[in-house]
Amino acid sequence: MRTQRCIPRSASKATHLMLVLLIMASRISLSRSIHRIIKQRTPYSQFRPKNFLKCHNCPLWSSSFSFCLQTLHHRGSTLPISVSASHSFSSCYSSFSAPPMAATSSSDDGLDANPLLRDFEFPPFDVVEAKHVQPGILALLKKLEADLEKLESTVEPSWPKLVEPLEKIIDKQTVVWGMINHLKAVKDTAELRAAIEEVQPEKVKFQLRLGQSKTIYNAFKAIKESPEWQTLSDARKRIVESQIKEAVLSGVALEDDERDQFNKIEQELERLSQKFGENVLDATKNFEKLITDKKEIEGLPATALGLAAQTAVSKGHKDATAENGPWIITLDAPSFIAVMQHARNRDLREEIYHAYVTRASSGDLDNTPIIDQILKLRLEKAKLLKYNNYAEVSMATKMATVENAETLLEKLRTASWDAAVQDMEDLKNFSKAQGAIEANDLSHWDINFWAERLRESKYDINEEELRPFFSLPMVMDGLFNLAKKIFGIHIEPAHGLAPVWNSDVKFYCVKDSSGSPIAYFYFDPYSRPSEKREGAWMDEVVARSRVLSWNGTTPRLPVAHMVCNQTPPVGHKPSLMTFREVETVFHEFGHALQHMLTKQDEGLVAGIRGIEWDAVELPSQFMENWCYHRETLMGIAKHYETGESLPEDIYLKLLAARTFRAGSLSLRQLRFAGVDLELHTKYIPGGSESVFDVDQRVSKRTQVIPPLPEDRFLCSFSHIFAGGYAAGYYSYKWAEVLSADAFSAFEDAGLDDSKAVQETGHKFRETILALGGGKAPLEVFVEFRGREPSPEALLRHNGLLPATA
């Protein structure tokens, strides 16, 4: 039986956007910048269950090899609904005076005290332990199974009798499983891993049972075929159509042996995905380089030396100091980047680089066989669903097609190549002029070091010297003031209102102009390599929902969390950020805003839920633009000790350096996207070509200097092997046109015109941020912009219009 493929309603408009993108790509000049550090964590398939709690893991930070990604572990694989001041304090709390999420009732001994099952207003992150997972999850699944059986026996093709009870079932599982999976990402322990691994098969089994329910599937089809269909809102139509599509992709049409095989594949993919991410984390934290001779780390800035000494203290070297050591270098981003950019010791750079690109590729942590098995199983899954390859399965819920994505990547590659070649020539000439013996034979561990020296020379900017101007408290104050200005919201600390998983985590209340709470969010800013995954991401804790109202009258308010891995405070100094870390925070906050400022009351398409993966980066990339807005930047760039503002000439230099090494940064991103598509379209698991051969082949067309023969980057490519980006990494490029054009609306209105900015911000909030997945992304964009997207803003932001003309 051939499974019918569902075509998105927005297919024709997606084709138009594709043409726009291709036109843009064909016009891109040699100085094309694609770097835009589009950070963690969270696009995703429209209603894919594994993405119901949508983690926005950000793309690989190509300019510094910082892998800014969230090892996004699947929340599930086959659900049909994508689940993936004192006065201030009291007013925030008052919104939770209504009954919270109901506990799962049970008379079993010990379960009443299990924090996973008890009533809570905010997840009890502070008390959940590994010992709670097995009994709590099994009791929860038993209750949800009973709820599902009841639904199937009483279901009718109507909203109250189908969608509302279904949302309750899925939300309960999503919130509880999301709680423990989040703890695994930010507070990992061997015990928690083992507990999750023990119950994961039962969790997936329930999701398969739900995702393949023909009773529910037929009820959704009946709604679409009923006379009432035309009376449904756009949001409800989107829900119904997506449920039908997702049921097919979940295997609802498979029978007997094929269904059994499909279910076995889903179980194994879930296990392999978890294991892949665990291996990356363990390989990263297992590497330590103890240095006692300061000459070996000559060139490292004071911030990096302080961090290395602080790490040494935590490892038992209690007398370590930044001045005298000893120092410990790790593969965690703040440490790794500092070495690559600043260490004059070329041998040290080579050692650290080699360790980084071979992570999780040997011994007990070798991800190579896991990659092979994941790709094999994904292809088998695609064949069962009557698709040619897994990329087609992935694209079934995206705006693009495989062919369109490949064409776009090739256009961008062609446009970027000569610029990248020139970038390399510039580095060779500059390093030779500086007397570098490696000038004629630059290798991978030389690129970032000499690129940083060239940037300092060309623009007279030293990123380390800028750190004192970007203290985390000042950056957050400026970010919140910006949100108040353009979106009319107030963000206030609510520390102590909700339990947190680490003392560094902050909790905030978001209020509208009347002072009423409308959302909440957690912020976990600092790197903790011993327990926390790398990267930056945003995720939802709970979503806005009418059905799941806490008081029966107003919708449940959304709650999000933002997670970064930036430089922690050293000694008595606050966290002093690089400019790129500032961009990261703005990026993740953009994702959080779309979740928190939604006005959709249908929980299944509220906030970040239900938005096509190709479009979801719009608000995050949009927010990054404000980092270059003079008033915004000057508002956050204050010296943490003196209060001195960032000098005007430095601001102008930051603007000038925005597109530095554009071609090279573009090609690095295209390598990631290209190898992703190649592995999920043409690669034959078990064939004559290994996955590393594929990477080398793609890299010949996307890298001026090919990867080392021993490069095993794929073994830590968590985006596609432990996250939701399989055959989807291209999505960052797709959304770039939308985000640049959206920001250009503010430029057209006048960035220095406060009233115009507020009016445009209100419109952005009421469309892009408010409508969520309740409308097709292009329809939402047109409602905001008044027209379909244009590449002009992106070209202009990257300084390409003169060259194009």
Automatic annotation (TrEMBL):
A GO MF term: metal ion binding
Q: Which residues form the Peptidase M3A/M3B catalytic domain?
A: 339-799
Q: What species is this protein from? A: Rhizophora mucronata
Q: What is this protein called?
A: oligopeptidase A
Extract the signal peptide range: 1-33
Q: Which CDD domains match?
A: M3A_DCP (cd06456)
Provide the Oligopeptidase A N-terminal domain boundaries. Answer: 139-259
**What superkingdom heads the lineage?**
Eukaryota
| Record EC number | 3.4.24.70
Record text on cofactor binding: Binds 1 zinc ion.
User: What is the organism lineage in this UniProt record?
Assistant: Eukaryota, Viridiplantae, Streptophyta, Embryophyta, Tracheophyta
Query: What cellular component GO annotations does this protein have?
Result: chloroplast; cytosol
Q: What class of enzyme is it?
A: hydrolase
A biological process (GO) annotation for this entry? proteolysis
Could you tell me what reaction this enzyme catalyses? Answer: Hydrolysis of oligopeptides, with broad specificity. Gly or Ala commonly occur as P1 or P1' residues, but more distant residues are also important, as is shown by the fact that Z-Gly-Pro-Gly-|-Gly-Pro-Ala is cleaved, but not Z-(Gly)(5)
Keywords of the record: Hydrolase, Metal-binding, Metalloprotease, Protease, Signal, Zinc
Q: Which cofactor does it need?
A: Zn(2+)
